[in-house]
Amino acid sequence: KQINGTAMGTSCACIYSTLYFGYYERKILLPKYKNNILLFKRMIDDILIIWNPTSPNNIEWTQFIHDLNNCSSLTWETEALSTKTHFLDLNIWIDKQSSKIQHSTYQKDMNLFLYIPQHSAHPANTTKSLIYNLLKTYKEQNTDNKTFNQMCKLLYQRLRHRGHSHITLKQHFKTSLNKIKHKHNQKHQ
How many CB atoms lie within 10 A of CB 184? Predict the structure, then answer.
């Protein structure tokens, strides 16, 4: 039961929380742990950090979590330090062989994938736009082409389950993939 603060779900709640915590992170956390934090990305109440231990027992991490939870009456749920994690709609990990950061699309098990059904009254271009933008997102999210192809197949299957015809989907996918490939080639020239 919420007994103080801005009511959850109101349009200003995220703005207040982002401003409030943003001030705390810029004035306290980031300066204090500047030698430990290689990357700090936050989206409202989700934080991704690439952490560099600077002492043998890494006491700074414990202090950081204490400071993180000391800014308000709320507490943050934190994971133990790891070389892999989920952040928003990404799986992120450090490849052991190359030491490079890799990423792929993350989708929650509870996601119902309730895309616009075929019989919807939406304009036809809505489905084209949905397919193009999701495929473009999957291309950006996946460092491995094999995983990108798996996501394309899953999207196709999910749209078929929503009643879309094979012929229409095949045409939209082909057009979208060609457009994405063309833009990708232009970007890397």
Answer: 12
Q: Are 183 and 140 in contact (CB under 8 A)?
A: no
Q: What is the largest CA-CA distance in the chain?
A: 62
Backbone angles phi, psi at 20, to 5 degrees: -60, -55
pTM above 0.85, yes or no: no
Q: What string of DSSP letters covers 97-112? A: TT--EEEEE---TT--
Angstrom distance (rounded) from CA 149 to CA 139:
9
- pLDDT tens profile 58-89: 999 999 999 999 988 888 999 999 999 999 99
3-state secondary structure of 65: helix
20 has a pLDDT exceeding 90? no
* CB distance 172 to 166 below 8 Å: no
Q: Compute the distance between CA of residue 127 and CA of residue 144 in angstroms, rounded to an integer.
A: 26
Alpha-carbon distance 132 to 96, whole Å? 33
* Inter-residue contact 151 to 159 (CB < 8 Å): no
DSSP H or E segment with residue 25: none
Question: Encoding tokens for residue 77?
Answer: 């749920």
Helix or strand (DSSP H, E) at 1: none
